[in-house]
Amino acid sequence: MTETHPLQAAFRDAMAACAAGVHVITTDGAAGRYGITMTAVSAVTDTPPTVMLCINRQSAVVPVLLQNRALCINVLSAGQQDVAEHFAGMTALSPEERFEYHIWHRGQSGQLQVEGALAHLHGTLAAQNEVGTHWVFLVEIDEIAVHDGKTTRDPALVYFRRRFGSLA
């Protein structure tokens, strides 16, 4: 077991004090189908629409994303905590079984989007770089669907102090 440096522990605690939206990133292609729950998702620019994802280098999704290149960012509603827990590996479900417990549709890009999400952003990897323990991916978005108030009236699902919650 590796020991955490006090600065790393303090950094993690500080980041846990920042409420963050919860997303499930899905990718499907030649390397297979995979999904992962993430909070390290951030807008970069709207011209062209670009989002940044930060994923631990040890994550099983990294080689799949690097080969598939295409993905969907599913912005989860508070009613989708079970989706977040499944794709965070907080249950006994295998990576493939996680898809069986929810309703999925394909966007125009062909990527999987979960029913009931507040929004879906489909895109392609535009750049990537290794920084410390993580990969930083820049994703150029080419398809967006916002469903707030149309298909769900749920508030946003957030993660704060290592717990799920909601934000109206």
TrEMBL record:
Biological process terms in GO annotation: benzene-containing compound metabolic process; pyrimidine nucleobase catabolic process
Domain Flavin reductase like, residue spans = 15-166
**A Pfam family per the record:** Flavin_Reduct
> What GO molecular functions are on record for this protein?
FMN binding; NAD binding; oxidoreductase activity, acting on NAD(P)H; riboflavin reductase (NADPH) activity
Respond yes or no to whether keyword Oxidoreductase is given for this record: yes
Question: Domain of life here?
Answer: Bacteria
The molecule here is called: 4-hydroxyphenylacetate 3-monooxygenase reductase component
Organism encoding this protein: Neisseria leonii
Q: What gene is this protein translated from?
A: hpaC
